[in-house]
Amino acid sequence: MERHTRRQSVWALTLLLAIPLQALAAEPLPSWNDGPVKQSIIDFVTRATTEGHPGYIPSEERIATFDNDGTLWQEQPVVQGAFLLEQVKARVREDASLAKRQPFKAVLEGDVALLSSMDEPQLMELFAATHGGKTQDEFAQEARAFFQSARHPKLGVPYTQLAYAPMLELLQYLRANGFQTWISSGGGTDFMRVVSEDTYGIPPQQVIGSDLKEKFDEGHGHPVLRREARVDHINDKAGKPVGIEQHIGRRPVFAAGNVRSGGDIQMLQYTKEQPRPGFALLIHHDDAGREFAYEEKNDASLKAAREGGWTVVSMRQDWKRVFPQEGR
């Protein structure tokens, strides 16, 4: 009997260790306030992972896609825009005529409002002008150097410390329940890949973004991939479902975006409206005290959320804290 009891105890301990820590937490998503938004996420995940339930989703189909800027971390200013400011300065030192052309001129003048309002095609045009001809390794080194030294102009901390605590918890919660978490952002793929794993736990191969065309260069016996001064794919608006299909080959069952320029509408529609309705999450920036408050000019994302039955997150009401360094 004693031996049998010991075997049971060992088996129970083995099962306990096999369960992800997040799944054992007394309260999933601790940085989220209790309420309908938090509960709707938990209810969806519970349905998706309960075999025999009508909402059950096989593990191989549990794909979750997240926009990056304004969804996983702050976007005032857009981090890629801040990086490009440094790159444009370097490029102008090589070609002074660029200083008289827009958007180079405004960028050089430190127009933060412009950097915050630039859409993905504009940013990618700047990328093409500043990084055409560089190898992938050269670009990655420049991006890493930026992240090591740059600080947010208002908040004064590295950009990688400005990932949203509630969204980091959401990523962990989904992964603990068998979901694959992917980034699908309008930002540059290679730029995000430099920090995606350390910041979000998302490996580089699960990052989808906008890209420049590339070519294989034998490099005098040292093969490299070299970036061209031409845009290949803009992973924004209608381009997001295209990028998702090309990289994943499955439609997401969970997707998150934010209210800014309507760039996430099509991804959320693509996720929500399918034979098995997915979960669409929209982040509303309405917390000027802890982060920023801003709206879209045409209110397109909130309008689409109302029409599509998406879950809208009020940062002010639904999040106990915004950034990891804040007290719980």
UniProtKB/TrEMBL annotation:
Keywords: Hydrolase, Signal. Gene3D superfamilies: HAD superfamily/HAD-like. Residues 1-25 form the signal peptide. It comes from the Bacteria. One of its GO terms (molecular function) is hydrolase activity. InterPro entries: HAD-like_sf (IPR036412), HAD_sf (IPR023214). Pfam families: HAD. The keyword Hydrolase applies. The keyword DNA damage does not apply. This is Haloacid dehalogenase-like hydrolase. It comes from Corallococcus interemptor.
